[in-house]
Write a structure and sequence with these properties.
The chain is built from 19 helices and 25 strands. It has about 725 residues and is an alpha+beta fold. A seven-stranded mixed sheet has the order 23-20-24-22-21-19-25. Strands 7, 8, 11, 12, 13 and 14 form a six-stranded mixed sheet that branches. It has a four-stranded antiparallel sheet with strand order 16-17-15-18, sandwiched between helices. Helix 9 crosses helix 10.
């Protein structure tokens, strides 16, 4: 066998040399045949090389054992060697079982291409030409087939076991149990006695070794179903050996007990069953199986099966939003699903993946990377067509990639998965991690420092333990697959988030009161395009991403300075809830900006003592007096964005609020609708408005002493006046 494998290694070298020959490259038919042969040989050769490497490790340990004079080091080397040998032995016994189960599950899934599989019937125990079994798989299949073929044998044993069972042993009952005599008088007047025994004694059952063998056998079948996912029918009502108790049987108790009861069986069927059970517990034992119907499953391209394994364990079925694996340009995507967005926790995005079941010898090639980005661009266009009403198949989607306000795009993570063999040959650890191959992370962009641009695409390369996914798929338990699917999807999300946090600073942003965010973005489109995105449920909050590269430091600082004039801007990592951060930012206050849409200030001078309570609720009516200052207020009423309550030349008594909506002129406004501030008997007109009382504006740079002098005079009543100015005049 090893000679043949070495021959395959040599053949692969020859194929690779021929592929580099210019003459072969010009011959398309020859080149295509060689490429197909390379694809078939590569996974086999890779696994063989892994085997040789592990074998060399064992030989090195043996050499260390022979040469080491220190007894403790000898013992360590010996223990390591024994542990490795046991792990290899377990791998040899179980790998064929899991590959068989994976191919069976693949074949039974009608969505898969079953033309790559050849199958014959299952091995049987019984009549016909027989041979010694070669693998642990032979034993398991023979155990399962015995169950299918031996139902009449089981019924015969069960019938014999229960014949005479539960009949009363009258001799023991009369001698051991107390009797209750009941007297009754018949219709004829005659007295009749009835004897009742309250505790009748059943006939004793002797130990039945046929029944014990069946309990062991069906416990094995139950184990095959729970561990490997084999479909088995257990039509008996025995208390089976499970859990810790069955582990003891696997550790040696099963073989010992079977030896003890071996000579209790005489029928051919019972002896065959004993042989099968004993072979299961003593894996090194070979038994004779029928070869009239040889069992084999042969798959031409296991890479296709591996892609189906990964897709079943992590992908969506059906694909999201009516998509098909074969895209409109003919390309076939391996894996596609929707899950939590990278930016926030409530929204969804697409995750797109590719996989190979043999570990790559080098980093991803340009062709693989480009192909993955092509998948992503096709998915983006499919989603855009849904929201533009141009998708003939789907009209609605839970995933919205494009944010019209910022024209930013949600991030679409792409990933590549390659198989690796766990060094300890474990089946119970997934081994999902960033690959150790150089350049495991790829980022494609049209413009730098624009993470939320449509053409910024991400690709992350993972390794996964081949034995884990093989066994998980072969077991075919929906609950276990669903549990791991959720875990691995979140692991993918977290690792890509950590990568992005290494490369970008992320912020949450919300416009200051009175700032029209849409208008700001339109007027500063060139500076913020691809850097801002609105992914949150609260659509007034934006995400901002800035590249950490030194080349962008000055540019980013300038942008942040400008944004903070009109927005609350706070650091907010991917996946964090931005709303608490915005609440804290508003509590700190913000400097009013002269760039607001309405930058006019209504300055109201009054005695603020004991009057702040009047501001509660924010609905106020400011009296307008018949003077030049009030006339100017009326002329600029549509420009008022702020109200400044102040005591002249007193920085400690300044309160600045943003106006929500437009101011309105009213006559004699009812007190229950608006609070008049202050009450004034002379005023006929009132300027009614709603103030944003939740947002505190910073007045550190505002000084009422800078208010301009109004020409034409002002009327005063109890130190009260009102006037209009531009915000920049008092900064």
């Amino acid at each position: 066998m090893f000679d043949k494998l070495e021959g395959l290694v040599d053949r692969l070298d020859t194929v690779l040399q021929e592929l580099n020959d210019p003459d072969v490259a010009s011959n398309q038919n020859r080149f295509r045949d060689l490429m197909k042969e390379q694809n078939d040989l590569t996974p086999i050769v890779e696994k063989y090389k892994e085997y040789k490497a592990e074998k060399q490790n064992i030989e090195d340990s043996l050499m260390l054992l022979e040469e080491e004079t220190d007894e403790e080091m000898k013992e360590l080397a010996k223990d390591s060697d024994e542990s490795k040998a046991k792990a290899e032995e377990r791998l040899i016994y179980t790998l064929s079982v899991w590959i068989y189960r994976a191919i069976v599950v693949y074949k039974n899934d009608k969505r898969n291409d079953t033309s790559i599989i050849y199958q014959e019937n299952v091995a049987q125990v019984g009549k016909g030409k027989r041979k010694q079994s070669d693998t642990y798989l032979d034993i398991l299949l023979a155990l399962i087939q015995f169950n299918k073929d031996s139902q009449s044998f089981f019924m015969f044993i069960m019938k014999n076991l229960h014949s005479g069972y539960n009949k009363i042993n009258w001799a023991r009952t009369i001698s051991k149990s107390d009797a209750l005599i009941q007297r009754r008088q018949s219709a004829s007047g005659r007295s009749k006695q009835t004897v009742l025994y309250m505790n009748p004694v059943n006939k004793k059952r002797s130990i039945n070794f046929d029944e014990e063998l069946l309990v062991i056998y069906f416990s094995i079948l139950n184990h095959l179903h729970e561990v490997y996912g084999f479909p088995v029918a257990i039509n008996v009502n025995y208390t089976l050996i499970r859990g810790k108790q069955f582990e003891k049987y696997m550790a040696g108790k099963g073989a010992r007990r079977l030896k003890q009861i071996k000579y209790k069986y005489f029928s051919d069927k019972a002896l065959q069953l004993w042989e099968l059970c004993y072979a299961f517990f003593d894996e090194t034992r070979q038994i004779f199986v029928n070869t009239n119907k040889t069992d084999f499953l042969l798959v031409k391209n296991f890479n296709i099966v591996f892609e189906a394994i990964i897709d079943a364990l992590i992908g969506d079925d059906p694909l999201p939003d009516g998509m098909d694996k074969k895209q409109r340009d003919g390309k076939i995507v391996d894996h596609l699903y929707t899950a939590k967005s990278l930016v926030e926790n409530d929204g969804q995005t697409y995750y797109i993946g590719d996989s190979k079941y043999y570990k790559l010898s080098g980093e991803l090639g340009d062709e693989s990377v480009y192909k993955q980005y092509t998948y992503a661009r096709n998915v983006i266009q499919w989603n855009l067509d849904i929201f533009n009403g141009e998708n003939a198949h789907v009209k609605h989607s839970q995933v919205k990639l494009l944010d019209e306000e910022t024209e930013g795009f949600n991030l679409i993570p792409n990933f590549f998965i390659s198989a690796r063999l766990d060094k300890q040959y474990r089946y119970d650890t997934d081994g999902v991690k960033e690959t150790d191959i150089k350049n495991a992370r790829h980022k494609s962009y049209q413009f730098k420092n624009r993470l939320f641009d449509r053409d910024t695409l991400l690709l992350f390369h993972y390794d996964v333990n081949f034995l884990y996914v093989l066994s998980k798929y072969g077991k075919n338990k929906t609950s276990e697959i669903s549990e791991w699917k959720n875990l691995v999807r979140e692991k993918f999300r977290k690792t890509i988030q950590e990568w992005l946090k290494e490369d970008f600073d992320f912020y949450a942003m919300e416009a200051h009161p009175g700032v029209d965010s849409k208008a700001y973005i339109r007027s500063h489109f060139k500076e913020v395009i691809g850097k801002m995105y609105a992914p949150f449920n609260n659509d007034s909050i934006f995400s901002l991403a800035l590249d950490k590269g030194n080349e962008f430091h000055a540019e980013n600082e300038m942008l942040l300075t400008e944004l903070r004039k009109s927005f609350y801007v706070e650091p907010c990592d991917l996946g964090d809830n931005p709303e608490p951060k915005m609440v804290m930012a508003k509590q700190k206050g913000c400097a009013p900006s002269a760039e607001q849409g309405k930058n006019g200030v209504l300055a109201v001078r009054l005695d603020m003592k004991d009057r702040l309570v009047l501001l509660q609720g924010g609905r106020i009516a400011v009296p307008l007096l018949q003077d030049d200052a009030s006339q100017r207020v009326m002329e600029r009423i549509t420009d008022i964005g702020y109200v400044l309550f102040h005591v002249y030349d007193n920085l400690q008594a300044q309160y600045l609020y943003a106006v929500k909506g437009n101011c309105k002129v009213k006559f004699n406004t009812p007190d229950e609708e608006y609070k008049k501030l202050p009450k004034n008997n002379e005023a006929v007109l009132f300027l009614a408005m709603d103030l944003d009382m939740e947002t505190k504006l910073d007045t550190a740079h505002v000084h009422s002493a800078n208010l301009p002098i109004i020409e034409g005079g002002m009327k005063f009543e109890k130190d009260y006046n009102v006037q209009f100015c531009e915000l920049e005049e008092i900064l």
